[in-house]
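Workshop exercise sheet. Pairs work together: one partner reads the sequence aloud, the other fills in the structure field after running the prediction. Swap roles for the next sheet.
Pair: D.N. / O.F.
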Amino acid sequence: MGKMDSKKLPVIPLKRFFFLVIIPLLLLVNLIFYWLYADQKKREIFIFTNRAESSLLAQKKIIEKFANNIFSDLNSILNHHELLSFVNMEQNESQEYLVHDLIQFAKFKGVYDQIRYINEQGMEKIRINFNNGRPVSVKKENLQNKKNRYYFKDSIKLGKNKIFMSPMDLNIEKSKIELPLKPMIRVGTPVFDKKGKKKGVLLFNYLSRNLLNVLRGEKKTTPHVMMVNKNGYFLKGLSKDEEWGFMYENKKHLTFKNKFPDSWNLIASSDKGSFINKLGLFSFNTIF
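Structure field:
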């Protein structure tokens, strides 16, 4: 076997070698790194989305639990023997006993700003004010007619064992928003006598700050939690200044739709979901 003449070996020019070997190799390495990065990014988005959706589901369950507790309380008073006696006028002392029991009930529960019995004409007959933890019965001369308030109209027209639950808003006293602000949910149900005649409405004013405080405590797992009503107004916003816009003439523009128009269009078209846009990851859920 003879020696190979080194002068006869093919010589690849450096420039050609660079284009044929080095550049493809760099492209392959970059492609691998991109794939690893994209896969990692996909995993992170999956984790963040799951975390956000789980947090929202937990908060939804909290709200539903609060609602069920209110319904249970309302039903217990609706079937309370003193209320039934009062409605049927079976005992002269029924109202006195009922007022006493409602005061004790309000004190024990600590979550109802007002408990009222309103007759079919819209006149308050019994009103218990929470009074910062010292419930009192409002004197007869200070009771008001509520026939024009939406919560009375929506409650009195219901059938037996049906419950009205208002949207969350701010409490109004004597045509003015009460200060300090009192977020409120009103829950009412019609009251019938033993003959089946509708006599009035039993109404609870639930202090929603209890619920909002619990939800604010949940933001440790989901930093930017917002709650909006069906019209997109903030009940719980990124700042307190943008909350309750629908209650103020000069804040009517403060809506989720105006703040995040593209995101709102997606959220308004579905009950729940997640999506990513230029602003980041949005996860949402709806409570009926």
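Discussion prompt: Residues 257 and 263 are 8 Å apart (CA to CA). What would you look at next?
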